[in-house]
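Sequence in, structure out. First:
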Amino acid sequence: MAKMNFGGVIENVVTREEFPLDKAREILKDETIAVIGYGVQGPGQSLNLRDNGFNVIVGQRQGKTFDKAISDGWVPGKTLFSIEEAAEKATIVMCLLSDAAVMSVWPTLQKHLTPGKALYFSHGFAITWNDRTGCVPAKDIDVIMVAPKGSGTSLRTMFLEGRGLNSSYAVYQDASGRAMDRTLALGIGIGSGYMFETTFQREATSDLTGERGSLMGAIQGLLLAQYEVLRENGHSPSEAFNETVEELTQSLMPLFAKNGMDWMYANCSTTAQRGALDWYPRFHDAIKPICQWLYMSVKLGNEAQISIDSNSKPDYREGLEKELKALRESEMWQTAVTVRQLRPENN
């Protein structure tokens, strides 16, 4: 592991250079890796592992997702099985089901997690709040995690482009004495760019905070608030959307992702510089109390319980679609449909 300086804090980081793919293959050469669940993370991680030369099988219930796995080249009875069959055959069980599904499938998985096997997650939710999820692993198995910092689609796309999506990694339980090697080898195998060390608890709390905060919840709230203020003051939908969303996503985000916010500030107009420097502290002071409230709600398990309760309702899917439909049909995101059509690359 390399020691890297992150803003003055030294952290453990694993790169492909110090942990090459050949080393990962050697560590896992006698392992059968079962990817359980072919939904969000399953396709990207399993396909990358397969393309990298690992012994991978997939466990998935019958249905549309099972059919998708077949279309991706997984062969029923050879590399594609029921969840129970795959878990039985595997030495490493990669549990990539949704948090709600993990709870329902846990009794099935548990009986096949025999001594010496490894149980792998890409999210710390089920283990961190196992007093609520019921996912309490036996002491004679490894419990490990590699959590890509993005969607399974991004993981696969970046792999095919010869790039890598960054991941965090953690060992919760080392029964075999090889848990760390297994973890890092799997992280390299799924196509991680580099990996940084965490714990199941830290990953789960930071992940839930991020999803509800700057990654999804807060960004939608901020964009909608600014869009509404512009519309309420006579600006057209196209103008409000371009000044709120389009310039941010199409012009600015790629630049400050590449060069940093200080570079952005140095390379915009003097009017923009002054306004940004004056106003970011005001937004910070207004938003930080909400972030603190959010983090505490996550840490106390309140957000986990809300998710568990919501996802357990029999009409969960219908209610979710109703909420998403309202978002999709809002003026701001209907404006986005037209704006996207006008982009030169779409004409």
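Second:
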Amino acid sequence: MDSADPSSPPAPSALRTLAGGVLMGLANLVPGVSGGTMILAVGLYDRFISAVAEVTSLRLRRESLVFLGLVALGGTGAIVSCSGAAVDLVSERRWAAYSLFVGMTLGGTPELARECRPSSPAVVTSFAAGLGLMAVLAWGVSDAGLAVSTPLLVGVGALAASSMILPGISGSYMLLIFGVYEVVIGSLSARSLLEDTAASVRVIAPVLVGAGAGIVLLSHLLRSMLARHPRPSHAALLGLLVGSILGLWPFQEPLHPDLAHEGRRAAVELTLEGATASELAGRGIEGVSDADVEAWRRAYGAMGLAERERAASRLVRFAPRPGQLLGAVALVAAGAAVTRALAAR
């Protein structure tokens, strides 16, 4: 293993690192929230990028391995222990989940803003570029409609891998933007892998190659930028961090609740494959009537997998009640307090 790298950021405490991993895992359970955003908000981003760059260069320093191990442990623990509660919260009280993560995101801005001082034209431009990118992703991007090819799959894999490193970027959203969500996700299904393994591998392999290359190249690029141009680089990250809340307006609800709820979505997909209400009950999915089955087939039968994924993510705004407004303010404040406390450790 290599000796200590003097250019690496100082190692944070084990408790702070573990807590950052927990928040990263929780973020990955909430649609529209990036795990990278939470790592940035709690002030672990520079260390995270440095550790990823070292490991992908096969420089296996103990400090980096321990750091990434703690992040992975916290994230995995959060996903395993909280996935059910998170799904229920997002399905039934999305406004509460979004309010909490808006607060957590904003709580990380003061510490990151300090890294951008003193201001300069390069700092302001970098911040605007990061914020503008997130605005485009939140409001201005639609399906690119490109023909599926091996180079496209490699490129999309590289972009999707950025969701592990860049704050606010969603890997599945990248697949949707380039019109390959159905192809890639469909190739990962057990049916595709068993029935046409060769075809699945032809899709999955270039995506994995692109993802691996993307992680290696992006981690090294970011590490170099943070070392050589720290203030503009941190300003761009600050723009990404602030911009990540643009799509998290709390008072929204799913336009298609049956597709947005994970358990209900599974029932919908099975009915579209031909399952009846009694067959669903035999699989342990209760509470579905024949009328539900027919309604789902009429509403979603003509949609492809990617189109149903888009429909599942579509939200509509609603007018909050006074109690929801007060609750949202309290949750934003609580979330900000959590990340401020962790960032200050």
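Remark: The longest helix spans residues 197-228.
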